[in-house]
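Tokenised fold entry reproduced for absentees:

. . .
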Amino acid sequence: MLAWLKLVRIPNLATAAADPLAGYLIVSQARDLAWPPAACGLAVAAVVAIYAAGMVLNDVCDLELDRRERPERPLPSGAIGVRAAVIVGVTLLAVGLVFAGGATAAAGSPWPAAAAVVLAGAVWLYDRHAKPTPLGPVVMGSCRSLAWLVGMTAAGGPTAALDWLIPAGMGLYAAGITLYARDDAHTSRRGSLAFGGLVMLVGLIVAAGSVWLADRGPIPLSTGATMPVSTWLTLWAIIVTSIVYRVAAGIGDPTPGRVGFAVGNAIMSIITLDAVLVLATCGEQWAILVLSLLAWFLAFKRVVPPT
């Protein structure tokens, strides 16, 4: 079982759940804490299943490379058979599309299923062809954007032009992480690390634009108080600073351990970033719910590396 948890990168599935959940909440502008509608749950399940499929099939495609660089991984070590991994990966992909079909039926819109189909295609493209090419980070970033869109379309959106800045920005952020992590099995090149970090920073600025460009006034909280947008931007800046600090540490010491730590932190921070984006639209109760996915990430991180 531990080998399978490693294969699907079980901690990272929390980030796959956070994106469509946050997307649904932001578009629906949910305020009162309640059990999410079926369309939301099915959209989240679809993205998690497709993400897990991508992790499994990624290792199948990387088998020969992992035999040289990561022989302890489940497939090259023989802990899991390649045929079993292929069957599970393809099954998870199909299950994800079935869940997306359910989200489409529940939402009364074809777009959740359409976004999920494109997401599944992007996952296959990345794993099978794009990963070692210059297009790899672009495709990976598109996967993160599409995960957001599965949730957003399940809520009938994106309804506002600025809503598009969120999947665009978080997609850029994911592309930057991919660029930064490209040589994490070896001593990385400082130039590629710096470029990856810059792309991450640009993505986070773009995503924040969905709030500071909206000019919606103070953010209402469940207590009846309000949060100034300037306070929200300060919170966002603190999180961004913590990410950039670790990225810079990896640039200063580009060893696998230091770079891997920065990558793991950047992935984990997706949950926090999603929660803060939800805070701006839905208030602190829903933001705390999204943030609670950190418990999933941190619990499994103790036994399974996120990178």
About this structure: The chain is about 75% helix and 0% strand.
